[in-house]
Every structure is written in C-alpha cells, then in structure tokens.
Amino acid sequence: MMRPRILLIEDDASTSSALSKVLTGEGYLVTTADRGDDGLAMATRETFDLVITDLRLPGLGGLELVKQLHIAKPKLPIVLMTAHGTTETAIEATKQGAYEYLMKPFEADELLDLVAAAVDAGRLMSEPVELGEARSGQSALVGSSRAMQAIYKELGRVAATPVTVLIRGETGTGKELIARAIYQHSDRADKPFIAVNCAAIPETLLESELFGHERGAFTGAQARRVGRFEQAEGGTLFLDEIGDLNPNTQAKLLRVLQERCIQRLGDSTNVPVDVRVIAATHRDLESAIKEKEFREDLFYRLSVVTISLPPLRERAEDIPDLVRFFIRRYARELSVELPAVQAEAIAFLQRQTWPGNVRELENAVRQALLLAKPLAIGLDHVQQAVDKARRPEKISQQPHSAYIADLLASAERGEINNVYARMIADLEPDLFKQAIQMAHGNQAKAARWLGVTRLKMREKLTELGLHPRNSNAPDETSEEIN
Ligand SMILES: Nc1ncnc2c1ncn2[C@@H]1O[C@H](COP(=O)(O)OP(=O)(O)OP(=O)(O)O)[C@@H](O)[C@H]1O
Ligand SMILES: [Mg+2]
User: Ligand 1 pocket, 142 CB below 6 A?
Assistant: First the structure.
C-alpha cells in the first residue's frame, strides 16, 4: 500500500513540528501549512489522504476551512484540533463534514488511532471498486461466473434507488466490496460513505457512535457528540456485522429506519436524517430470529433488497481470474516481477473448499508468491501456501520444540530452505490475534506490546480478517501533545 499523505494545517510552529514528527515516525508523508487560506488552497489543489487542521488559524479559521473543503472535496477526511473551551465549534465542524475532532491536549496514540481510522474511511470512499475484472485499480470485484454476473446485475438495479440493502454471505466473500460498489454506483456517490462495524465497537459505545449523545448523557460523556447517522446526512451508512447488534440497539435502529429520525442519547428531540442504509452480516439471521437474538421486524426492514454472495467453492470457475488479479496486486506491492502460474497450481486451488473464501485465497496467493519468487508459481508453492494457512492450528497441538524439529527435519531432507521465514509466518497470526484480544481491541496498545507501528497492526488485522475498523478503545496515557 502507498504511504498515506497528510496535510497538517497548524500555525504554532512547535506543535506543528511535534505532530509532524509523530506522524512521520508512523510512516505517513506529511506536508504542512501554517495559514488556513494556504492550507485550503493546497488541499484543494493537491491530493491528500487526510487533512488535520487547527481551529484557530490566521487567514481562514478551521471551521470555515472545514465547510469550504468539505464542499470542494466531500470525500477527503478532515480532523479538527481544538483547544479546551471550543468544543461547541468542534461539534459544529463534525456536522459540517469533519470526520472527527480532537481536543487539545491529546496524546500521540489518540491522534494516531484517529488518523489511521480517518485515512481508512477516506479510502473506502474514494477508491473505486471495479466490476467483473480489474483494469487499473486496487479494488475490484473479480469474477465472471454466472453467480457473480447475477450479483452485478442486482447491484446495478439497487444502486440507483435509495432502498435499504442487506448483504449476506460467509466471511471473506466480498460483502464490504459490494457495499462500496453499491455506494459508488448510486446517485449518492458524491456524498459521504460511512462504515460502522457493529461487532468491533463495545456495546456501551455503539449507540452513541451511531446516534450521538448530549453532554452528560452517561458517565464519561463530557461533550456532545454527533453520531454517524448525522454525519452521513445525504449519504450512505454501511452497518457491517449487523447480526451482532444487541436487542436494545436493534429496537433503536428499527425506529430510525421507520421514522427517518434519530434521537441523540440523553435528548428526546427527533432529528430528521436522510441516510441510505446498507447492512451486512455473515450470520444466519433466520436462526438468530428463532433464537430470539434478532428482531424479525428489523430483519424485514433491512432486507427490502437482499444480495447473497455465493461462497467461493460454489464458483470455482472464478478462481483463475482471482489468482491472476491477486498476483498482479501483490507483485506490484512487493516489487517483484510478475510470475507465471502453472496450470496444476490453479487446478489445485480450484479443488480447495476455502472456508475463508476470497480472503483465504488472497492470503494463499500472497504466500505462494513469496515462496515462488523469482520462479513461476507451481503446484508445490500453492500446496505449501494452503498448508501454511492451516498450520497454526497444528502448532498449538504440539510443543514448540517438536514443531521446530519438524521444520528443521524438512529442511534437512531438502524440502524447504526458509525455516526462519516460515516460523515467523506460522506464528504471526496467533501473535496478532492474541495481542488484540488481550488488549480488548485497542490497537495502539497491542502495537506497542509487539513493537510494531499501528499501520502494520491494521494491515495484519485486515489480512487476518479481524476488522481493524472502528475498533479503537480509549487508551491510557502516553506522550502528550499540547
Ligand atoms: N470478488 C472479489 N474479487 C476480488 N477480491 C475480492 C472479491 N471478494 C472479496 N475480495 C477480497 O477479499 C477480501 C475480503 O473481502 P471483504 O472484506 O469484502 O469480505 P467480507 O464478506 O466483508 O468478509 P467478513 O465477513 O470477514 O467481513 C478483501 O481483501 C477483498 O478485497
Ligand atoms: Mg466485512
């Protein structure tokens, strides 16, 4: 992935350089401006992934900047920094299109978590999803099987109308890609697309995330907050993992869908919202309804239109195209030459059952590419890659010394010559999984434990299908920036 570009607009030279240092250290490319008018001009002229701006600025204030920039580039995420006592203005800014605000003083971790989430949110909006085959872009729904063609047709049909859509399918079948494609082909494509992962946010915070809250609505609600529904005004809200909503929130969501109004927590005023909802789940909602875990009336509201993505094993004819697509993607990313793929290798991949669907295939192809370089990808490579993905389970069933002895014995027999890399690759998934669990989803904390950057953390979580989006819990203090 390319390093994200950030424009930092801050007139105080020492704050600006401290922030630049933190951001650069995390791998971002930072450009600075020290006046609001200059910043606005730069942001409009050049391409950035994120703008971070101070509120009080010479030339043009932060709030006005947010307003104008959001109109000029509605998909560019903006984070507003504000000093104590100006929260009302900051809240106003989130209604005007700012992604989020940060109250000074804040900690480096807080900033970095927010920046990572905002950059992600921006990419979801602006990176086009190509349909059928990939010509140029990064994101594509690849596959020309009948099943996928039916999906593209359905997608074209529902995109144009603002109906609620429910996307169903096993894990890794491309639900998120479909949601983005619907948005991009809709008449709301120039308005925001905001994704909320209902499973990744602690229950107690989810309602406030969705609907916002008034100051003092609950312990810790120090300032008002504008919810994602209000932020998505005129646009599209993607509610991912909707099957994981608790009954209380289900009831509130149902009301919003029926009445097209939200109520902020701690306030009974009805605020009208014009938001198109797209929901997704891998869960069997019919069983959940039977078990009284999911409301039937909400199910009917959500599934005005349902798009069901077929598991990969039911469209094995798409595997050759998918393999070539992923090889191109990762060869570019790893800067290696495009290798050829042998027919037996493809045939082997087509025979697998792929419980993790396209995501699992993608990971296997990446692995095979690493094993094969700089040769053609053969049967051996893909067998090893698929085997590798299932090996971590085996590791946990035997002592590490036995596992290491196994690896070394294969090397001695001349079967492998990369024991070190394989050991790391085998253990990595567990390391990241356990760390994020122990840190209760707090990526900053987990990254710190492992001594990796947050970008790396997010990359790994995405690769493992662990939903890094919105999973930032509040953290204890680290370095403070004023
Ligand atoms: N048809 C497809 N063509 C190309 N890539 C795909 C396709 N379907 C899925 N992918 C890729 O597979 C990975 C998983 O896709 P996505 O996140 O959309 O799945 P999901 O159904 O939302 O999974 P989960 O239930 O785990 O959230 C992503 O990297 C995505 O780019
Ligand atoms: Mg998903």
Answer: yes
